[in-house]
Amino acid sequence: MEESNLSDIAVSMNSRLESYFESLDPGMPEWLEQIRRESLEGGIPIIREGTRRILSFFVRMTGADKILEVGTATGFSALAMWEASGKKAHITTIEKYEKRIPIAKKNFMECNASEFITLLEEDADDALARLEGSFDIVFMDAAKAQYLQWLPDVLRLLRKGGLLISDNIMHDGDILESRYAVRRRDRTIHSRMRDYLYELTHRDDLNTLILAEGDGTAVTVKL
Predict the structure, then answer these.
(1) Which helix (H) or strand (E) holds 59?
(2) Where are the beta strands (DSSP E) in the chain?
(3) What is the CATH code of the structural domain delimited by 3-222?
(4) 136-160 tens-digit pLDDT
(5) For residues 86 and 190, what is the distance between their CA atoms, to the nearest angstrom?
(6) What's the burial of 93, exposed, middle or buried (CB within 10 Å: 0-12/13-18/19+)?
(7) What span, in angstroms and rounded, lies between the C-alpha atoms of 201 and 92?
(8) Most C-beta atoms within 10 A of its C-beta, which of 83, 114, 137, 156?
(9) Using CA atoms in the order 112, 115, 119, 125, what is the torsion angle rounded to 10 degrees?
(10) Structural domain spans, the chain
(11) Do 23 and 64 meet the contact criterion of CB atoms below 8 Å apart?
């Protein structure tokens, strides 16, 4: 059998497996599903369904009380984590894009989550540098090229034994390609993401598991 045919079969099998595993998921509450639909209809990028399942699993598993999120968008991921915590966790989330902030605030208010979710309306560089405290989970889902730059402050804020969850590490599959195989405009993100993943997987004070679901997620434990 030709190599191209084998590749097509593998892709088909992976797609069928993904569909089957998704069919086993009980889904999300209707209020959260509505926010997901509205976000997608508005063309606003939010976490993929696989990432939502990953976040929900680790929030429930760890019993996280304090969560830090870098990148709010419409507030969907923050609300998904809040729901997974039994609506008990306090979440600090950072967003600088002015057009998305009112949408997130509206969603938090309508879901009666405003007292549990603190929205910092500023650049992540500034917010992370001035934040204090200790978080059980940090979820990174903002400018991918800045993940490595933010890492020192993120680790400072993450408690020992806490989880750093980094989204979109595959960059739609480009992470597998050589630097010159990706579009010129994406080369900086490509190289910085590779450097970030190397840092997560080669530091003695971190232990990282790479999950391929969604657009790729790195789950890192601070030792």
Answers:
(1) helix 49-62
(2) 66-70, 90-94, 117-120, 135-140, 158-167, 206-211, 217-222
(3) 3.40.50.150
(4) 999 999 988 899 999 999 999 999 9
(5) 37
(6) buried
(7) 26
(8) 137
(9) -140
(10) 3-222
(11) no
